[in-house]
Design a protein that fits this description.
Length: about 220
């Protein structure tokens, strides 16, 4: 019996031989841990418990008393996403001039004085090549002006993630102002336009028509 095992082992690559002991040890640890967790779960009076049974025949409670339901206020604090059609945009407004002042203080250090210089992501630019060929032309840089599909995404992203050292710290009026300034810098809106929950969703981005819905369903329909 040992001879057969050694013969099989000799035919295995060295990398597999070295991995087998670790694999067996991992399987043993997983099995033991699973049993310990199952046997250590708290169990209530069997008459008042509705749940699954363990290997010892005891029943697990439907709930373990961990955590609590989130309050409406707590849910509201995390419910900050903004949809392409503007759903989720809060009250408030902002102008290009206000946004320019905020940008200089909170954004220019990372994105450059005019949104072009960096050192981080370039925000301003309208060049998308001859055929919107970002996938094959590595020299093209994706910016708000040449690649973003929806203006409302600007509000969503800035509100939840910027500035990098204090994400979520900007007030709605500040975010609307930054959005207005960046849209203006990308030659998408005029300097005197005001951005708010009504006007922002109406902004049509230059690259909007460059995207199409993915209607593939799988199987023979895949193109």
């Amino acid at each position: 019996m040992m001879t057969g095992q050694n013969s099989v082992c000799k035919q295995m690559p060295n990398s597999v031989k070295g991995f087998l002991p670790l694999l067996l040890l991992s399987a043993l640890l997983i099995s033991c841990t699973h049993q310990v967790v199952k046997d250590s779960l708290p169990v209530k009076d069997a008459a008042s418990v509705k749940g699954t049974s363990t290997s010892r025949g005891t029943k697990l409670p439907a709930r373990f008393g961990v955590g609590r339901m989130a309050t409406a206020e707590e849910v509201r604090a995390w419910n900050i996403d903004v949809m392409p059609d503007g759903t989720g945009l809060p009250p408030g407004s902002g102008t290009v001039d206000q946004g320019e002042k905020i940008y200089r203080v909170k954004c220019a250090a990372c994105h450059g004085a005019t949104g072009v210089e960096g050192p981080f992501d370039r925000l301003v630019g309208r060049d998308w090549g001859k055929n919107f060929d970002f996938g094959i032309n590595r020299h093209l840089t994706k910016t708000i002006g040449n690649y973003w599909q929806y203006a409302t995404t600007l509000y969503d992203f800035i509100h939840r993630a910027m500035p990098q050292n204090a994400p979520g710290s900007l007030k709605p009026d500040e975010v609307y102002s930054l959005v207005a300034y960046l849209l203006y810098r990308n030659q998408i809106i005029q300097r005197d336009e005001v951005m708010d929950a009504q006007s922002l969703p109406e902004v049509v981005m230059p690259a909007h028509g460059r995207f199409v819905p993915d209607d593939r369903k799988g199987g023979p329909e895949v193109r």
